[in-house]
Design a protein that fits this description.
Helix content: 25-40%
Number of helices: 18
Pfam families: PcfJ
Radius of gyration: 39 Å
Distance between the termini: 74 Å
Organism: Paenibacillus alvei TS-15
InterPro entries: PcfJ
Shape: flat
Protein name: PcfJ-like protein
Length: 541
């Protein structure tokens, strides 16, 4: 079973497939791979059972139905031998554990792909075993010094070309080539394998869970996982248990989330010293602090530890629960923003917590990081408005949310005023250039931001969204009015590059003959006197 694998690896492995493994495959992993193939000889029907390999006379067995084999008592699916079965292959992926033959403290695991192929001669079908991966987990000696204290984990796998090679890290084949087949793992098998080894009390049982319903996971197009299928093959857990003696104690103390994050590669914020020789060194806490942490009766995460030590290290010690409430300030964007504010650390943290704890604050803030971001934006507004950011009354308003809403309005008003001044300035520059009157119609530039908004509102088009472009000189916006109704929106014109690019009325309506004739006169008079522009583009505003 381990052909092609280096000798220092195979020395740990069993020399042949055990009866126990073979039985597990036949009875569990491929337990449903039992068929009675029927054939006819004249008026007689015969059935062949693939489980007990007996053939006998049958009566009325119908294709696709389930019947009990009269010879072995197995419940089998009936298949008419004359029907096509080019896809009739049953398979599964199993991770099977054993004791090491070489080291009584070590355990090994085999990732085995098994299948039964019925596409050919159904009387010659045998269960096929393919070793996809092999693992060796060797624990360290907790009483030893130096690197001997920590164990090792090795993995060898089969590549695409059927060659074995040793990997640089441990991983589950269920995340790779074995995503598709149904997966099986036996808790009884693991219990026997770890019995009498340091892994016996590692707490592996805490990390097995089963799917409650069919799920689509893995694979390019999704792969179905059956209800009751194990979610893990435990190879990552045993890697950690082998390498870090503290694993057993972390599990016993209820800190399983630390190991879960380690297994999934999510990181532990540097909160755990995995090679620590005592639990105080592993958790970086005193015995009294560990006792306090365990008394919380909650699922403790690495972030609890990280945030607690983060504040303690910076001279702001606080209870574990409060530190966790403030944990978003201790890492990633939260800590980055807090540093960028360049304000006293202790005062800032206390202020953020105060705002987060205000009655009704949960209407505006979902965690302390949302308070921090609101505060950052508020201070940026204060600088835009020229407020005295050296004053504590400005820096730390009593009600941050209310104060920020006020600065938002002030900044918007200031920006709107500045934009409007630019619009007015453009009107002054363009009025003499574009103002034109003929046959009861008049055209002129937009005179203010408010006028542009009103134009868009009354004509039901979006010219108001062009205000900034107009103010920046990227386009010229003109209004057509009836001379008798100079303040009532009628048509809107956009001029760009000396050309009329669009002219629209109510709900983006096209030009009437009257308006088109007026626009052509406007073009002749104001845009060019040498050549009439006949093609007026009709793109909606």
């Amino acid at each position: 079973m381990s052909l092609g694998i280096p000798k220092d690896f195979t020395d740990h492995m069993p020399q042949q497939i055990s009866e126990e493994l073979n039985s597990y495959v036949i009875e569990e992993a491929l337990g449903d791979s039992r068929y009675i193939f029927t054939r006819r000889a004249g008026s007689y029907q015969y059935g062949y059972c693939t489980h007990c390999k007996n053939e006998y006379s049958t009566k009325g067995f119908r294709h696709g139905k389930t019947e009990m084999c009269p010879k072995c008592g197995s419940f089998c699916t009936v298949k008419a031998s004359g029907r096509g079965r080019k896809k009739l292959i049953d398979d599964a992926y199993i991770v099977w554990y054993d004791k090491s033959r070489k080291d009584p403290k070590s355990i090994v695991a085999h990732g085995i792909y098994v299948r039964r192929d019925y596409t050919g001669d159904y009387k010659q079908v045998e269960t096929q075993f393919y070793v996809q991966a092999e693992y060796v987990f060797t624990p360290g000696d907790p009483k030893a010094a130096g690197k001997d204290r920590f164990g090792t984990a090795r993995m060898i796998r089969r590549d695409y070309y059927q060659n074995f090679y040793e990997t640089s890290s441990i991983f589950s084949e269920r995340d790779s080539v074995m995503r598709r087949p149904p997966f099986y793992l036996s808790e009884d098998n693991i219990s026997k394998a770890v019995q009498g080894t340091p892994f016996q009390y590692s707490g592996w049982e805490e990390f097995i869970s089963y799917r409650l319903f069919d799920e689509w996971v893995g694979g390019l197009f999704g792969t179905t996982r059956r209800e009751g299928e194990p979610r893990t093959d435990l190879v990552k857990f045993f890697e950690i248990a082998a390498k870090y003696p503290c694993t057993e104690y972390l599990v016993k103390m209820g800190f399983t989330s630390f190991i879960e994050r380690k297994i999934n590669g999510w990181g532990t914020y540097g909160a755990i010293h995995w090679r620590g020789t005592t639990m105080e060194k592993v958790l970086r806490l005193s015995k009294a602090e560990i006792k306090e942490l365990r008394a919380l009766n909650i699922k403790v995460t690495p972030l609890h530890l990280h945030s607690y030590n983060f504040y303690k290290k910076r001279g702001l010690p606080m209870p574990f629960e409060k530190a966790h409430e403030l944990s978003e300030l201790t890492h990633s964007d939260g800590w980055k923003i807090l540093k960028q504010l360049d304000l006293p650390f202790e005062l800032s943290v206390k202020y953020i917590y105060k705002q987060f704890s205000r009655p009704g604050a949960n209407k505006h803030y979902y965690d302390v990081s949302s308070v921090l971001r609101d505060w950052r934006d508020y201070l940026a507004d204060c600088k835009k408005l020229g407020m005295d950011t050296g004053s504590n009354a400005v820096l730390y308003p009593n009600n941050l949310h209310t104060a920020h809403q006020k600065t938002i309005k002030k900044v918007k008003y200031a920006e709107d005023q500045a934009l409007n001044l630019r619009v007015v300035d453009r009107y002054k520059k363009l009025n003499s250039q574009y103002r034109f009157e003929s046959n009861g119609l008049i055209i002129r530039p937009a005179a203010s931001s408010a006028e542009l908004v009103q134009e868009g509102k009354q004509l039901s088009h979006c010219v108001g969204g062009y205000t900034k472009n107009y103010a920046d000189g990227n386009c010229d916006l003109l209004f057509i009015r009836r001379v008798s109704e100079p303040d009532k929106p009628f048509y809107t014109v956009e001029v760009k590059g000396g050309k009329v690019v669009q002219c629209r009325g109510f709900k983006n309506g096209a030009m009437t003959p009257e308006v088109k004739a007026f626009v052509e006169k406007f073009i002749d008079e104001k845009l060019t006197k040498k050549k009439r522009i006949k093609a007026i583009q009709g793109v909606a505003v």
